[in-house]
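non-specific serine/threonine protein kinase
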Amino acid sequence: MDDAAVLKRRGYIMGINLGEGSYAKVKSAYSERLKFNVAVKIIDRKKAPTDFLEKFLPREIEILAMLNHRSIVKTYEIFETSDGKVYIIMELGVQGDLLEFIKTRGALHEDDARKKFHQLSSAVKYCHDLDVVHRDLKCENLLLDKDFNIKLSDFGFSKRCVRDDGGHITLSKTFCGSAAYAAPEVLQGIPYQPKVYDIWSLGVILYIMVCGSMPYDDSNIKKMLRIQKEHRVNFPRSKHLTGECKDLIYRMLQPDVSRRLHIDEILSHCWVQQSKAKAQQPSTSSKEWESSRGGKDTLKVPELRPEKKSATKVEIKEEPRSEALPEKEEPVQVMRQSQTLGFNSDEPAAETKQGDPSPAPETVHT
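Tokens:
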């Protein structure tokens, strides 16, 4: 029985193709029961690799079944046919993903960014409180509903944290995600705290929201890693960001894992808590904040370039990353964000760096 017939028997009228890989595809469908369109992820067990079937797929199904949060893509139904096909019926991001939104419309105003980032942070807190980590947080995995609210999606690399006899979460050893969103400890192949890794990715996402560009150019991983470890964050001067916003990003992009913010600290940060009325009033100036962080060196930052893509972003991971890790201090080889986005480095930025004295300005080439 073909996919359309299987779905029809379940009350779904199959629509267009949204994405396709070697062993999985995503279709749109109309649910006769729900009376609206959904996304259907179809996985063929006969074509999927063993490690995916034994580890990643069971994790994803288990976690999707337990999640219920307004800012996480809803999973309506999961079923499997006798011929080895798994069907996951999910909420459809009708307005596409956040990356396409920013590419098309540019950086978000801080008020809009605050609302969307609060939705995302609330979803991450919900997961972390359940000891679930996402490990692939990025703008492409943030879908937008009809009202442009954030819906966290793609739990293909998620897992439930394991705790030792003392109740402490054990370290992870699997690299997950894209290099542009990956924390320095992950890029170095160091066993990492998975919840702390998610926080770094949140920092990258917020930077992209308010700056409309990537905080780090991953076309040169070693150079990017060096800049990250020096705690350098470069902000485009033209965006006129408030000090509170910069401070939050700076504290999330903290290379020292013992000092990186916890999800509760993010949600209680003054910028996240700030009301719209207060946000419109003058706050800590950029000059004051930059002065406290070491000056305003002129740098260039990688920009996002608009690309023509489908209205709904769907990413299918062909192969899970291996558990094998490189030697310490050697960055892993991963797909570069710059390869898919493209960069334009023509806008000067203000640099912040932990400690004094500030280094000489350096150009981030793309």
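DSSP finds 13 helices and twelve strands in the chain.
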